[in-house]
Design goal:
This protein is mainly beta. The protein has one helix at 48-51, and strands at residues 21-23, 28-32, 40-47, 59-66, 69-72, 79-83, 86-93, 99-104, 110-118. It has 1 helix and 9 strands; from the N terminus they run E-E-E-H-E-E-E-E-E-E. It is globular, with a radius of gyration of 13 Å.
Length: 120
């Protein structure tokens, strides 16, 4: 549970490859980059069934240069499109520091299969 997204540190660490996982209200996924990235496209792939009825405020996005200091980022919202058995939420941000936090803000659980990053 991530009660204070701007200052809460990670509670568990995983290798860069994530397996399918359930994300619930007020949990966060944190990613560490070797350096700041600008701009950054984010794609969150999840099961199509869990993607239904979610809004464009799916994740709050925060970034920071330390694992316990984050600033919220503005973005245009999450767009959803379907690819077979998966729903893919995507958005673009202007700049990500060394740490990027996706803080889940929805009541309904989301089954995440993959999170991808690319530069447009």
């Amino acid at each position: 549970m991530d009660d204070d997204p701007p200052t809460c540190e990670p509670t568990s660490f995983n290798p860069p490859i994530i397996t399918t996982m359930a994300v619930d209200l007020h949990s966060s996924l944190i990613f560490q980059f070797a350096s700041a990235i600008s701009p950054l496209h984010i794609a969150v792939e999840c099961t199509a069934l869990s993607a239904e009825q979610h809004s464009d405020t799916l994740f709050e996005i925060l970034t920071g240069s330390q694992s316990d200091r984050y600033q919220p980022l503005n973005h245009a919202g999450w767009e959803l499109h379907y690819d077979g058995m998966h729903g893919i939420f995507s958005t673009q941000i202007g700049r990500a520091e060394h740490y990027l936090k996706l803080h889940y803000t929805q009541q309904r659980n989301l089954i995440v299969a993959k999170v991808g990053f690319s530069q447009p």
